[in-house]
Each structure stands twice: as structure tokens, then as C-alpha cells.
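Key result, reporting period 2: structure in, sequence out.
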């Protein structure tokens, strides 16, 4: 299984009472399947995984697996700062017909690089599922170095990719050129840095904005991959302001606001401790959405 191109980090829609809104989730997934994406990612940061209860996690996975029905690969986020717990939960996923695990660097504990290596090595040995590492030091408090990433890629056959959300272009270059296997994939964890990361060897992105603009962002990523740099740059410029607005009040508050105004989810609802975007930001997102849609129609 090769995870390249544009993966969508799915939001988890909620009803007004805070329960999971499966009607909106179905609508969102069917919309993306009718457009262009390469794979789905459930229970990532954008899916508010930290605020999803264990029984809800399983129910969401079963729902999406059944709905997608092998039309696109499904990656499930699974992270913990307790290695033993992570291993146990990974084994439970084996029977759920998913295609890969996305696993974040252990957070809060601030482990050494050796600790990070042994943590992911234990995960890899506990499951036959492909594993995508997830490096996001802004959330975890520790950066997984390129040397550690390459070491894991070479020592664990089912560690097949890394989602790099360090924001460091040179780090991507060091992973690509540092002796990782030829089929090991680096994916951008930031929409706005996708082109820069791909210029030094990344093969795609796990995207937030892809929830709302799957075809256009898919076109950007594949244009860049195929050498149509002019088109990729044009689309990137159109999204430039929206990238910023979606993160003013945190993720996924921004993208949920946009999806709500697109009519793709029924409620602009996030779970505490997150809160919805403020009124001023909401108005800016709405205004920018109309500008983006008009601009995209003129070039695509």
C-alpha cells in the first residue's frame, strides 16, 4: 500500500448535543468520494481524536469502512504516550479492515530519540498494518529527528511513511536524502508548505483544506508532482489567505466553520476544550470562501 498524493484528515462532525453526527459524516465522505482524493485519515488532530471516546472511535471506524467500501484507502490515527497501551490498541485494529495506522510521536513525556525509536519499534512489531509516523513537535513537545525517522524506516518494514508537520523544509530533505528506503514516503503535515516540501522530495500531504476543496487541492498536489509548477503555484496563491484563516482560532475550528457554511456539515460544533471560531473570523472565512471559489472556477 503506497500512501502518496492527497490524503484528507477528516473532521468529526458533531450534533448540537455533542454526539457524533453520522448524517453529516456520510455527506462529507460522499462529497469527497465524488471529487478527487487519494486516501482518508480518521482520528487525526483535525478529527479531534483527543476528545473522541473509545466506543465512539470504534463506531466511527466501522461506519467509514463500510461506507467507503474499499474505494479509497483508510488510515486511522492511533497515538499514545504509553507504549504498552498503544501496542494493545493497535492489535485491536487488526480486525477492522483499515489500511494503515498514523501514529504520533509520544507527547508530554518528552522522550529521548532512543525512546521514540523503541516506542515505534514496539508498535511496528505488534501489528502487520502499515504505519505512517507523525512528527508534530508543536503539539508533542519533542521533534523526531531525521536520523530517527530514517533509522525506523530501515529497521521496521511496515513503517512506510512519515507525516512531517515540523514546518522544517530541511528536515524533509534530510529524511529523503539520508538513506531511507526508496519506497519510504514523506508527506507534508501542513497544506501551506506542501509545495516547498515536495520540492525537496515529499510525495504528498495529509490535508486539512482538502475537507472543503478536495478536487482543487488534489489538483495542486498532483500538478506539483507531475511538474506542472505553474498551475500548482496558481492554486497555492488562491488558497494563501484561507490557509491562515483556518488556523486563527485553532484546528479544526476553522475548517469546521467553512464546512458548515458550505452545507457539508449540519452544525458548527467542536468539543471542549476547543471552541468555535469567533464572529469576526467566521465572517472573514465566509468572505474568503466566495473569493476562493470564484478564483478556482476561473482556472480549473
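The corresponding designed sequence is given below.
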Amino acid at each position: 500500500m503506497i500512501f502518496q498524493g492527497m490524503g484528507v484528515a477528516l473532521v468529526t462532525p458533531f450534533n448540537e448535543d455533542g454526539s457524533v453526527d453520522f448524517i453529516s459524516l456520510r455527506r462529507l465522505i460522499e462529497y469527497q468520494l465524488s471529487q478527487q482524493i487519494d486516501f482518508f485519515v480518521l482520528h487525526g488532530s483535525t478529527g479531534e481524536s483527543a476528545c473522541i471516546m473509545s466506543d465512539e472511535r470504534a463506531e466511527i471506524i466501522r461506519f467509514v469502512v463500510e461506507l467507503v467500501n474499499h474505494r479509497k484507502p483508510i488510515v486511522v490515527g492511533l497515538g499514545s504516550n504509553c507504549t504498552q497501551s498503544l501496542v494493545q490498541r493497535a492489535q485491536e485494529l487488526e480486525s477492522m479492515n483499515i489500511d494503515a495506522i498514523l501514529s504520533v510521536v509520544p507527547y508530554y513525556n518528552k522522550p529521548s530519540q532512543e525512546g521514540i525509536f523503541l516506542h515505534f519499534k514496539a508498535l511496528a512489531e505488534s501489528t502487520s498494518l502499515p504505519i505512517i509516523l507523525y512528527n508534530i513537535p508543536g503539539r508533542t513537545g519533542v521533534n523526531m529527528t531525521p536520523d530517527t525517522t530514517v533509522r525506523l524506516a530501515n529497521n521496521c518494514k511496515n513503517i512506510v511513511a512519515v507525516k512531517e508537520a515540523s514546518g522544517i523544509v530541511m528536515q524533509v530533505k534530510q529524511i529523503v536524502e539520508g538513506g531511507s528506503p526508496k519506497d519510504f514516503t514523506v508527506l507534508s503535515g501542513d497544506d501551506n508548505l506542501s509545495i516547498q516540501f515536495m520540492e525537496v522530495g515529499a510525495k504528498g500531504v495529509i490535508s486539512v483544506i482538502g475537507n472543503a476543496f478536495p478536487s482543487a487541492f488534489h489538483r495542486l498536489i498532483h500538478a506539483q508532482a507531475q511538474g506542472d509548477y505553474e498551475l500548482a503555484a496558481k492554486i497555492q496563491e488562491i488558497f494563501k489567505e484561507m490557509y491562515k484563516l483556518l488556523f486563527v482560532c485553532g484546528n479544526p475550528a476553522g475548517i469546521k466553520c467553512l464546512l458548515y457554511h458550505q452545507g457539508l456539515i449540519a452544525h458548527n460544533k467542536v468539543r471542549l476544550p476547543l471552541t468555535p471560531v469567533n464572529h469576526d473570523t467566521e465572517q472573514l472565512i465566509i468572505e474568503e470562501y466566495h473569493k476562493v471559489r470564484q478564483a478556482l472556477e476561473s482556472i480549473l
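The two ends are 30 Å apart (CA to CA). The chain has twelve helices and eight strands. This case is discussed further under Risks and Mitigation.
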